[in-house]
User: What shape does this take?
Amino acid sequence: MGNPDPIELINLETHRIPFKQSGMDLDHWLGTFRSWPNETPGWREWYQRIAASKSVSWDELKIGQCINLSLSQMERNEPLVIAASYFWSDALNAFLFGHGPMTPTLADVVLLTGLDISSPDTPFRLLTATSHRLDTRGIGGWKGFIRCNKRAGSVENREHTAFLMMWLEKHFFCGRAAGPSTNTQALAEALSGGTRVPLGKHLLGAAYHMLHQIGIKLSKGEPIGNPGGPWWFINLWLNLYMNQITKQNVGHMMFPNIESAEDPTARRRCMSFGEAASAFPGCTYSATKVAEYFQCFYNGFNEDATVWFPYQRDDPIFELPTCFDSSTGRFDEELNDELIKPGILPANFFSGKDDPTYEFYNPSVAARQFGMGQLPIQVYFAGRVKFRDELTTGLDCSRVRDRIPDSNTIDLNNWIVAPFAVQPFKLWWAEWKQFLFCNSASAYCNLLDPANIDPNAEAENRTPPTHSRSGRLIEGHHPYTSYPLIGYDAPSVDVIAGRSKQAQKRIAKKTSRRVRARIESADPPMLVSAETPAAPPPQATRDVDTQVVAQVGAAAASLLLEAVQTAQSTPMGTQQSAATQSAIDAPPLPSVEVIGTPSAPQPLVLSQGAGPSTASIIVESSSSDEPMVQAPEQGTTASQMQHEEIRFKVEQDTPDNSLFSFAVALSDDEEVASRQIALSSIPDDVRAKLTTIRSLLQGDIG
Assistant: This one.
């Protein structure tokens, strides 16, 4: 059950409903239905040829009923779907009509199309390379596609694939190209090979995503163009749920006799709710009809005309689908889990250049459409995962689906089909309605149909309350956004997958262990830090193995530590007398900071560059004011470095320390000579090792 106080939806979602933002310019709908699945000449004959040998396979894959609908000669009702689109909420994935929220559900998909909704879904496997080469360009559109791919004799896999591809692209997903395309070829090959695919979820996800895109265009006042998408399914769904308003008798509808090869005009009785709804008459476009349907949705259906669960009948009237008993209103038990729990629907997996994504399935929005009691709506996934984020791998799909709740404990054996609304929902919806429908329907109809102006429209407008019933202030300052504000702070797919800066962290963690092991082997234990040069690495060193660099840097740190310890044992006077000459003769070395404390070694974080001289080891010290040493600039040449004065500062730790704390760094010329030690005081064997390491750091060790 959702929050009985609708304040969050009032504040964050009310202004995002398209009719609250749109200018109601019907010219923006020109060309929107170019991809409507009209029957192509030759499609019926090709269907009969393929069905003769593949109909059994289609029924096993649960696509046979939906393929039959491609021959329904369904008439589109443009004013109906245009008017309904203004009420779509892409946060709830539902139409917010005046009589209450309604939405196409997976139950509608099953009962209207018979498609599979329960098989495991691995959509990224359906984006693989295809086996057949099917021409789609320069062949004369879909009519030419049939001519090129229809064969004689037995039906081969290639022809079957081509048939299914045309069905998916033209009659199912209805691609925006409105012509042959290979976007769905991999899916067609999977189906022709007998792979079970939950196409019902893909259909509903495509319908939700299409309405989301339409809602954005309407709210921004932009031309819609031809987005493609399954408008036919939305039309089919609205036909069925509005049959009491349009006065259409579902049980008396007739369907084309697709099995008859002699008489294309022959018709038979319908065998499913989908076939019956497809036989409803259409309606030609007119602004007046759009305004009439809009007013119907805005004011809400009369109680007697509202149909929440149109599939339950005292006497069964249709044979299909076999998974549903219309006399009891019950589905097969294995489907209940998919129907009533929140879910993730795939979208854009077969639509060309669009990024694969997902849509949320919220059955709590329309509990009455399952024959259940309606409670205040809960937007289950809000705050759990970002809306419509991009999916890049199959693992992303799995991680997003991990957010789906477990419903194994729900027992529906004693479920009695009875659509109703509890009192908390009635109060919840009544309060939200005050803000959704505060203006009169006539005010919007005047914009839709300027030829029929109601002069009293503005007088019927109402001022919504400034506070909710709970006493909270209504916020009206939120600007329109193309994304839902509910659950805005939810984690993205990248965050759920742990991809944010993960690659860098893995490299740092992997190298830190090696460096720590090398440093801790020294006596006493040291922590090392070298600052990364700002200049970019030379091209010759960009492919150097970072692990080798880290090991060389660690070795240099240990040897420098050894050198400093040796230098500490040298009398101070000797160091001072040799400082000037040794500073001139000393070979150039990259400087490394060594910070030691008596405490246990602290965690290391390695920031790794592309070349040896860009490798840096940054370590947190136990004291924040310890001196740091910078590495030489990347652009510094060897000749310049030979003339640099290299000095070491040695600082005794406090008397309380049993060990010491010191730093090794490049010093300025102004440093006091008494605090300098020259490289000449380092033993020859240590100096030789440092020289070797220097050459490795400066050279190309890749």
